[in-house]
Write a structure and sequence with these properties.
Elements lengths: L4 H13 L16 H7 L5 H18 L9 H9 L1
Helix pairs in contact: 1-3, 2-3
């Protein structure tokens, strides 16, 4: 991963879509296990691998969207008429 750009891109694709897609049928570790996975492997550039996994975790954390409460329809109609 630390020397394979395709693997790095795949990690970030998973991170970006983690909350959007269902990965339950895939043989993947969830974000909670990514740092342990990174620590358990030998990398050509350990600092780069640690940064990549850390950034991927940050992306997962930031991509969790909190739904915004919708305004009641009457308020929307008044706003449009106003």
């Amino acid at each position: 991963m630390d020397s394979d750009p395709e693997a790095l891109l795949e990690l970030f694709e998973i991170a970006v879509t983690w909350h959007e897609l269902d990965y339950s049928d895939e043989p993947l570790l969830g974000p909670a296990d990514w740092l342990d996975f990174a620590d358990a492997h030998l990398w050509r550039n350990p600092e780069r691998a640690e940064r990549a996994f850390g950034m991927a975790l940050d992306v997962v954390g930031r991509s969790r969207v909190t739904p915004v409460a919708a305004a009641p329809l009457a308020e929307v109609i008044e706003l449009v008429r106003g």
